[in-house]
């Protein structure tokens, strides 16, 4: 909302007090704890707190790393909102809580009312495992589950509303467990930001882009850059296979255009921290990737026959995502013709600006304190406007200006080289998916690993798009890269992809697998099922397996950590 002085202010998020200051009567408390890796779960949790306070609750919002299980067990009503990181892992800020929960006493949460809302991405097999694990563990520790867990895919904006309404209604009927007061329980370890470790989104490291070179040829359909960053802190302490998160700022032209559309000068103050709206839009909120929830919110006031409104109300997530593809927040406002939106309310609906993560293309053994990234620049024109990727454009600018940027490491859970350096590795990385395998090969070269290395690389055309071609051919000539299989889909009459090369090389693939080789896949999420099918075909054909045995064999590779994917 806007004050009389033109200052934009946030809505109050409430407190955890248990007595109304006006009536002296007890009010219903609700503690919303979140585990978030990219900011989505935190955003959803904050919206639930706003909704709860609007219904008369005294709601509080905390991340899971701000308290211990013992402190959580003393809450009157407990809601956990958590994402799942990677394939089935706890978000970084939920891991300490989860670790302590494993050794908690069997009745720690006895009769504590709780509910869990899990969000994830169904392209992963265990896409909501973190929420499932927390839900199951709290139940085993005596917690009183007031509502079955909800598992949400990436469309949680559209699918969580009914569950949240039911959860708030159900919690109103709950009588909190009586307990003795214990002053020691009021402490919240880690609540002081100064005590947080470096190398996290909350306390990022710094970096400077010290080298940038174009990998793709000028005639290529894609512009791919190789960046080398000098990094500080924990970002130096990575392993090949890890990723580096870059925290961008929004393009100032997009910010100015959005301010103009909203009728704001940009100098208005927003919130209690004294930031201007311009600063807030540039540094704090996601403008390049509109989320489904804000679209649904915007179309509430559109005409019943408006095509975008019909699209939202159809519940067809794929169709809505197709419509959103390539559009930024300004596009959405313009195309829905939402000219009377309240600026303060609009800003409160925006999600926090997300970091972008990139597979690291280097090795500490070979490259010291420099972290290498392989980045495809996003740039296109639509609706008469020039669009650029929030982070790929940001990195280009940082390379030119030598501006210090904020980064932090994202350790992989399974996507690392085998501990046994005599083990063979098969790497499948089309396009920029080759990045981590460049790091793998550089590491194995310096460490003189005895295991063999086989790389599958692909793109549309060889001449403009073969990334790191000279390096790969040199590694092949000096014996580090034992086999190199390439597929350039548009360079012949029939399209040929890396999965086709895997089928063609099936005899060798099966021989390597039988000898203990590990398989790594990196690339867009659409590649994962294609590689699965290719490997299953190899197992059926060259391993003489039935479809059932081939499926079981592939599952055993996954469970042993010998078939690992990094898809995005």
Tell me what the structure shows.
The chain is α/β, with parallel strands linked by helices and 568 residues long. The longest helix has 16 residues, at 527-542. Residues 1-25 and 181-197 have low confidence and may be disordered. It has four domains: 29-182, Flavodoxin domain (Rossmann fold, 3-Layer(aba) Sandwich); 205-246 and 356-391 and 402-410, Elongation Factor Tu (Ef-tu), domain 3, CATH 2.40.30; 252-349, NADPH-cytochrome p450 Reductase, Chain A, domain 3 (Up-down Bundle), CATH 1.20.990.10; 425-567, Nucleotide-binding domain of ferredoxin-NADP reductase (FNR) module (Rossmann fold), CATH 3.40.50.80. The chain contains 22 helices and 19 strands. The relative contact order is 0.09. Strands 1, 2, 3, 4, 5 and 6 form a six-stranded parallel sheet that branches. A six-stranded antiparallel sheet has the order 10-9-14-7-8-11. It has a five-stranded parallel sheet with strand order 17-16-15-18-19, with helices on both faces. Pfam families: FAD_binding_1 (PF00667), Flavodoxin_1 (PF00258), NAD_binding_1 (PF00175).
Describe, in short, the structure shown.
This is assimilatory sulfite reductase (NADPH). With 568 residues, the protein is α/β, with parallel strands linked by helices. The protein contains 22 helices and 19 strands.
What is the subunit organization of this protein?
single chain
Which CATH class of the largest domain is shown? Alpha Beta
Structural class: alpha/beta
Beta-strand percent range: 15-25%
Q: How is the biggest beta sheet arranged?
A: 6 strands, parallel
Number of domains: 4
Please provide the count of β strands: 19
Report low-confidence residues grouped into runs of 5 or more: 1-25, 181-197
Which fold name fills CATH's third level, the topology of the largest domain? Rossmann fold
Number of helices: 22
CATH architecture of the largest domain: 3-Layer(aba) Sandwich
| CATH homologous superfamily descriptor of the largest domain | Flavodoxin domain
Distance between the termini: 37 Å
Average pLDDT across residues? Answer: 88
Shape: globular
Radius of gyration: 26 Å
Helix content class: 25-40%
Domain FAD-binding FR-type: 202-418
EC number: 1.8.1.2
Pfam families: FAD_binding_1 (PF00667), Flavodoxin_1 (PF00258), NAD_binding_1 (PF00175)
Keywords: Amino-acid biosynthesis, Cysteine biosynthesis, FAD, Flavoprotein, FMN, NADP, Oxidoreductase, Plasmid
């Amino acid at each position: 909302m806007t004050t009389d002085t033109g200052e934009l202010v946030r809505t109050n998020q409430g407190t955890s007090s248990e007595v109304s200051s006006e009536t002296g009567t007890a009010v219903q408390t609700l503690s919303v704890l979140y585990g978030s890796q990219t900011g989505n779960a935190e955003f959803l949790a904050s919206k639930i707190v706003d909704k709860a306070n609007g219904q008369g609750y005294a709601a509080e919002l905390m991340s899971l790393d701000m308290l211990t299980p013992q402190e959580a067990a003393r809450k009157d009503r407990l809601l956990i909102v958590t994402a799942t990181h990677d394939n089935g892992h706890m978000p970084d800020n939920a891991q300490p809580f989860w670790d302590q929960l494993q050794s908690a006493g069997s009745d720690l949460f006895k009769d504590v009312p709780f509910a869990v809302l899990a969000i994830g991405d169904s392209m992963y097999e265990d896409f909501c495992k973190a929420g499932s694990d927390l839900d199951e563990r709290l139940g085993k520790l005596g917690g009183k589950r007031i509502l079955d867990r909800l598992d949400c895919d990436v469309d949680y904006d559209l699918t969580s509303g009914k569950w949240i309404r039911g959860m708030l209604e159900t919690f109103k009927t709950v009588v909190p467990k009586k307990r003795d007061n214990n002053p020691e329980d009021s402490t919240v370890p880690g609540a002081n930001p100064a005590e947080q470790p470096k190398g996290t989104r909350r306390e990022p490291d710094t970096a400077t882009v010290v080298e940038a070179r174009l990998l793709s040829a000028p005639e290529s359909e894609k512009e791919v850059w190789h960046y080398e960053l000098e990094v500080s802190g924990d970002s130096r302490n990575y392993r090949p296979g890890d990723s580096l998160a870059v925290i961008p700022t929004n393009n100032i032209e997009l910010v100015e255009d959005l301010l103009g559309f909203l009728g704001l000068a940009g100098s208005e103050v927003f919130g209690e921290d004294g930031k201007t709206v311009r600063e807030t839009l540039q540094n704090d909120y996601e403008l390049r990737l509109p989320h489904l929830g804000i679209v649904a919110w915007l179309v509430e006031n559109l005409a019943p026959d408006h095509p975008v409104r019909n699209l939202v109300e159809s519940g067809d997530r794929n169709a809505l995502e197709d419509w959103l593809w390539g559009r930024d927040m300004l596009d959405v406002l313009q195309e829905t013709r939402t000219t009377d939106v309240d600026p303060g309310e609009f800003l409160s609906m925006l999600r926090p600006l997300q970091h972008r993560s990139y597979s690291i293309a280097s090795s500490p053994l070979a490259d010291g304190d420099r972290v290498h990234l392989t980045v495809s620049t996003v740039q296109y024109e639509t609706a008469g406007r020039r669009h650029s990727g929030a982070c790929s454009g940001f990195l280009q600018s940082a390379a030119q200006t030598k501006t210090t940027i904020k980064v932090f490491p994202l350790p992989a859970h399974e996507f690392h080289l085998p501990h046994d350096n005599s083990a063979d590795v098969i790497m499948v990385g089309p396009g920029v998916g080759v990045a981590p395998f460049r790091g793998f090969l550089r590491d194995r070269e310096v460490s003189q690993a005895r295991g063999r290395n086989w790389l599958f690389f692909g793109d549309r055309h060889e001449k403009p798009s073969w990334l790191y071609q000279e390096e790969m051919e040199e590694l092949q000539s000096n014996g580090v890269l034992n086999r190199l299989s390439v597929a350039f889909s548009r360079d012949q009459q029939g399209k040929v992809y890396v999965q086709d090369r895997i089928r063609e090389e099936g005899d060798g693939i099966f021989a390597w697998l039988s000898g203990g080789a590990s398989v790594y896949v990196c690339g867009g999420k659409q590649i994962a099922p294609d590689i699965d099918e290719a490997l299953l075909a190899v197992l059926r054909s060259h391993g003489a397996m039935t479809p059932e045995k081939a499926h079981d064999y592939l599952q055993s590779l996954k469970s042993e950590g010998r078939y690992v994917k990094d898809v995005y």
